[in-house]
Amino acid sequence: xxxxxxxxxxxxxxxxxxxxxxxxxxxxxxxxxxxxxxxxxxxxxxxxxxxxxxxxxxxxxxxxxxxxxxxxxxxxxxxxxxxxxxxxxxxxxxxxxxxxxxxxxxxxxxxxxxxxxxxxxxxxxxxxxxxxxxxxxxxxxxxxxxxxxxxxxxxxxxxxxxxxxxxxxxxxxxxxxxxxxxxxxxxxxxxxxxxxxxxxxxxxxxxxxxxxxxxxxxxxxxxxxxxxxxxxxxxxxxxxxxxxxxxxxxxxxxxxxxxxxxxxxxxxxxxxxxxxxxxxxxxxxxxxxxxxxxxxxxxxxxxxxxxxxxxxxxxxxxxxxxxxxxxxxxxxxxxxxxxxxxxxxxxxxxxxxxxxxxxxxxxxxxxxxxxxxxxxxxxxxxxxxxxxxxxxxxxxxxxxxxxxxxxxxxxxxxxxxxxxxxxxxxxxxxxxxxxxxxxxxxxxxxxxxxxxxxxxxxxxxxxxxxxxxx
Length: 470
Prior knowledge:
Elements: E1 8-10, E2 13-14, E3 20-23, E4 38-44, E5 51-58, E6 63-70, H1 78-89, E7 95-100, E8 106-122, E9 125-135, E10 140-141, E11 145-161, E12 173-178, E13 183-189, E14 195-201, E15 206-209, E16 215-217, E17 238-254, E18 257-258, E19 280-287, E20 293-296, E21 307-312, E22 321-326, H2 329-336, E23 341-346, E24 352-357, E25 365-373, E26 380-387, E27 393-395, E28 398-403, E29 412-417, H3 420-428, E30 432-438, E31 441-447, E32 455-466
Parallel strand pairs: 19-32
Antiparallel strand pairs: 1-2, 1-7, 3-6, 4-5, 6-9, 7-8, 8-9, 10-18, 11-17, 12-15, 12-17, 13-14, 13-17, 15-16, 19-25, 20-21, 21-24, 22-25, 23-24, 26-32, 27-28, 28-31, 29-32, 30-31
């Protein structure tokens, strides 16, 4: 597969360190190999009447090619060529090839080595070269995901495995520095029910369990023997909640499997909204605290029915548009704390007004909002997920937990579709739930109080297109 990312790193150096840019001399059209071919593993009965299938295996590994020339398109000198060849073709162990997007972020990583370099010549001059990379697997990996925490007793944390291979577990690298002599480390994956136990640790001892299922200590002569149950932490696809018991400093690192096949250039930058009909529009609204005007006050002193309004200028909206505010969890908390409800509506003249019921907001709000036409149907997808009572993590004035949904793009917006049971349970605990699509996936926030029950909720996902309100 040909690589077109403008920047890559290999053995701690990038193409830019050598003044090289990524180009293409030949068109890359038509069929390409995904390197995801599969062979069955089997034995045949002696007379051929039955085949015993034991599973399957991939029959190839990813092979990449990167074509490069100098930034000024000049010919290569002998010293420049030697430096590039030393970087790419030395007989080192396999290394990570990291591919970057235009925001200088790692989007794919391949483990392997460059196995050949072909020069592009014009007569005696070298004007470029094509480097061929052979990976150790048929797929790419994500950038490193990491969790770091001080453990003092027991903690629960989520590990998100968004891998594209459901039949393969991810084995993270675990580094733990123990605090007290004679203590043990326990790590249990609640999703799989399996527990890793390392006992009789010395004070300040550092143990490492790597992704190749090897355990070792900074005490070089240590033999674990019965002090380790040889159960490795394995992550299934989705959100894996783990409980960690011990005393010390913990670090967990792992990568997701990514079947990107031809590693499409700027894959994350594709406008996903173009493949969905009538996408929602998303914009940013500014609602200042000093803009509110009292429009209604109930005469009954036992009722707090004050209503305030202010005019809002919303571009890209028409008289048939419906505007839905999309507050953050922190914004919901500040409104709920004062029993204030905020929404957008139209007046008789067709202007858009922000309404606040229950009191006058005393904060400036920069809040996202969606714009939809009431006469158009928005294409949506629906999913059912479980919110675990042990899965909530404190996050400012809210609690959060991630849910596993694969069919989400960077333009997706996520709603919680309430039902009577859910609303009744949340009302009893004075809690509001809100769903957000952030860089790590779909996250559910609970404001004010942590839910103490498990909930099954329905999520609705629609595609959006951002429009500026400036």
